Amino acid sequence: MDQPKRKSLAGPMHLAIAQPTHEVSAGLGPTKKTEQDTGETTKGPVETGGFKKSKGPKDTTTIEGRAIIIGSAECTADQLCCQYNEDFTMYAGGGVDGNLKIFDSDSNEILMTLSDNEVQGRTASVTCVKHRPVTKNYPINNCYTCTYVNGLVKCWNYNFKQCIYTIRENRQTYGLAYHPRLPKFITYGDNMKVYLYDEETKVQERVLQASDRKEAHDGPISRVFAGRFNPRSNYEFLTGGWDDLVHLWDLRAPHAVKHISGVHLCGEGLDINKRGTEILTCSWRKEEQLQLWDYSSFKIISTFYPDVHTCKLYCGRFLNSDFLCCCGGDPALLRVVDLQTSYSAVIIHSLPSAVYHLNVGPMKVSKGNKPQVEEDVRQKADISRVPKLCYTCGRKLIQLDFV
Predict the structure, then answer these.
(1) In whole angstroms, what is the distance from residue 308 CA to residue 329 CA?
(2) What is the distance of C-alpha 185 from the center of its chain?
(3) Higher pLDDT pick, 14 / 308
(4) Within a 13 Å sphere around the CA of 32, how many CA atoms are in the beta-carbon half?
(5) Confidence category of residue 34, pLDDT binned at 50, 70, 90
(6) What is the pLDDT of residues 237-294, one digit of tens each?
(7) In terms of Cα–Cα distance, which of 96, 82, 12, 64 is closest to 358?
(8) Mean of pLDDT over the chain
(9) What are the pLDDT digits (tens) for 294-314?
(10) Which are the contacts of 326, defined by CB distance < 8 A and separation ≥ 6?
(11) I need a surface site. Which of 105, 110, 175, 357 has the fewest CB within 10 A?
(12) Span 154-210, pLDDT tens digits
């Protein structure tokens, strides 16, 4: 199916795909020469989105609000994604060089680098890293599952430092999302299809795509960059991407059953709250980037307008019942928003590089070492209860905490 014609240029993809290099990733064709090669000034998302690989940009990071950087790790290549492990003792970053680097959460010291000849042979960037959610039936398995731009899906056991299994997809694969309770996950990419896998059997159970009825809007018609299961459902999940649509899928139906229009996703800018009642979308566009939607009706609840700094967004997550976080580029920014007031509680700006991804850490622990319970009746939002998070910024992985 042909991709729809656009009136304007679509938002940027991951750095690994959009960045012009002399090494060709995932079999892509030749690209235009860079500004350094030609001496000409380039314009558009490649420049403004922070995609061009810089030679050590000056770090003028400014934090406004009650947040502190508690540690950072320097990598040898730009990082596109990050993920804490199941017990939050480690965090991992996936780079454009195909390496999965794992660091200690307390010391920020590197523990290991996971890669193999299959990844390095084609210079395949890591586009996503996740682990299976911990449940009573499926406890910690000490594994990260990664997707790569050349279509590989690899599961790494970091205790044994080896690849447990590999799935090879014939496309550019941009990400995956795990089922909240079962050992299943979906992957998505540039071929407008969503694949459902059973992790235990390594079998592809479903291929989900749009029908032949274009007017139905019952599936993606362009690249898919985000996917998210509803934490309260065994069957429903969301996807979104370049076609300006967010689709609701039900595994009992052949095609998507609902859609939201006007949401342009270029990263994991999609989330569902723990109750499964609200949807967060983060768009790569100049206006109305951050929006909240009702899950049952798919109607808009609110649009969060930038109170000081504006930014085109890549990624966003609910932090708890009172706060959400979003990040992006043009200009590079990370923002924590108070859901009660709709204003920013923390803003990190003047970053040296775009923030492509973030991951939320463990819930804060109160006295008696019991996790704090979110009350039904909201009191004044307390940002000190917000869990720490990890985010990517150029070649760095940075941990942020709130006080």
Answers:
(1) 15
(2) 15
(3) 308
(4) 11
(5) very low
(6) 999 999 999 999 999 999 999 999 999 999 999 999 999 999 999 999 999 999 999 9
(7) 82
(8) 87
(9) 999 999 999 999 988 899 999
(10) 269, 282, 289, 290, 313, 315, 316, 317, 334, 335, 337
(11) 110
(12) 999 999 999 999 999 999 999 999 999 999 999 999 999 999 999 999 999 999 999
Distance of alpha carbon 393 from alpha carbon 391, whole angstroms: 7
CB of 92 closer than 8 Å to CB of 103: yes
Provide the β-strand partners of residue 90: 104
Q: Residue 286 carries which side chain, given as an amino acid letter? A: K
Half-sphere exposure of residue 198, counting CA atoms within 13 Å on the CB side? 5
Question: Measuring CA to CA, which residue among 25, 6, 7 is closest to residue 16?
Answer: 25
- pTM for the whole structure: 0.85
CA distance 328 to 356: 6
Q: Which residue has the tokens 């930038």?
A: 306
